[in-house]
Write a structure and sequence with these properties.
Chain lengths: 129, 232
């Protein structure tokens, strides 16, 4: 795995976090205001588009432990979107609170895994330098 | 819903740092202060600044330009720093759209600084909490101040009058008019954060120089005039 690719991935982690939290912020605002919200899948949101264009093409070249973490992040991210899609801000349901809590849990987990990825990549970069 | 914001004219900003200095001066002594400094007069000074000015050089010599980008919290309408906060310390006020941090609830985990794509969060190593621009909320609502002084410190101090403040949702506000009339833009619109702060774009200034002026003997003068004449 080229050093520059690992470095680029490490630098992108902040952007992934920003994309995801912006999506959550927009969804939570829509829920609060009861406004229409266009849900996106884990491959359509800004995070997914960026991830699919930068991480997925190099995934098979990544060191095993990094690849395992990347797989885990993808799974959590898609699970987050699966849960969030069940919430319709224009048509609130009593079960929404539970789904929201689950969605927030997945979001926190995703964040922790992304930070773990950053740490792992930084460690690798130090080792390779 | 009102959304207070800054509108910054990049065409007028000369990068003098007066806004940043007055911001620090006001906020270090007012309700949200102090803003810590470490080794301020040493080789590696560090500290909390709500407002920072980035300066960039563009083009190649001799046709270069320097432009300055003052940057503070953009008070995004879909602020990613709010949902990411595990304690709810980071919040957006409904009445004016200002994003604030409740220091009593902040645990200094820095997640908000990870999520902010603009790098506008400042961790105070002395207080161990995250700090950021408050749009001088302790000035703009202070009725003991004359109405013309109820503006953020950076706006009041700008010697080039490059900064404007107001409700960007109110068609009667100066900020709203500036954005509409001068094609105000936001940073990283693709991020979807809908920043409230806007920038007014730079415009190229063409200077007409009479032919006889180009015959001056001073070579430096000639060079400068020639560059202006070409619009460089």
């Amino acid at each position: 795995m080229p050093f520059t690719v690992l470095k680029e991935l490490a630098n992108k982690v902040g952007i992934f976090i920003s994309h995801h939290d912006t999506y959550v912020s927009r969804l939570e605002r829509a829920i609060k205001d009861g406004e229409e919200f266009t849900h996106k899948t884990c491959h359509e949101c800004n995070f997914g588009v960026e991830w699919d264009s930068t991480v997925v093409p190099v995934k098979d070249e990544l060191p095993e432990e990094v690849k395992a973490l990347v797989d885990e992040i993808e799974k959590i991210h898609c699970e987050f979107h699966g849960i969030s899609m069940q919430i319709d801000p224009k048509n609130p349901q009593p079960s929404d609170e539970e789904k929201l809590n689950r969605m927030r849990e997945m979001s926190n987990l995703l964040l922790r895994k992304l930070l773990a990825l950053k740490r792992l990549l930084s460690k690798r970069l130090v080792e390779e330098e | 819903m009102p959304q207070y914001a800054l509108v910054i004219d990049l065409n007028t900003c000369v990068g003098c740092h007066a806004c940043a200095t007055n911001c620090k001066e006001w906020n270090t002594q007012a309700s949200f202060g102090p803003l810590s400094d470490f080794d301020p007069y040493g080789r590696n000074p560090k500290g909390v600044w709500y407002n920072r000015i980035m300066s960039y050089e563009m083009g190649e010599f001799p046709n270069t330009q320097v432009f300055h980008l003052p940057k503070s919290c953009l008070h995004c309408q879909d602020a990613p720093c709010v949902p990411v906060c595990p304690t709810g310390a980071s919040y957006k006020r409904e009445q004016d759209g200002i994003v604030l941090v409740n220091y009593d609830d902040c645990i200094g985990c820095k997640l908000c600084s990870w999520s902010c794509p603009y790098g506008c969060r400042e961790f105070d190593e002395a207080d161990k909490v995250m700090k950021k621009c408050t749009l001088c909320i302790d000035r703009i609502y202070d009725e003991s101040l004359p109405p013309e002084h109820r503006k953020p410190a950076c706006v009041l101090t700008c010697p080039a009058k490059a900064r404007f403040f107001g409700d960007i949702e109110d068609p009667n506000s100066e900020a709203y008019r500036m954005i509409k009339e001068r094609n105000g833009f936001v940073l990283f619109p693709d991020m979807g954060t809908n920043p409230a702060n806007h920038y007014l774009p730079r415009t190229e200034t063409k200077v007409h120089v009479d032919e006889h002026l180009l015959e001056a003997e001073n070579p430096l003068f000639l060079e400068v005039v020639r560059r202006h004449y070409k619009g460089g």
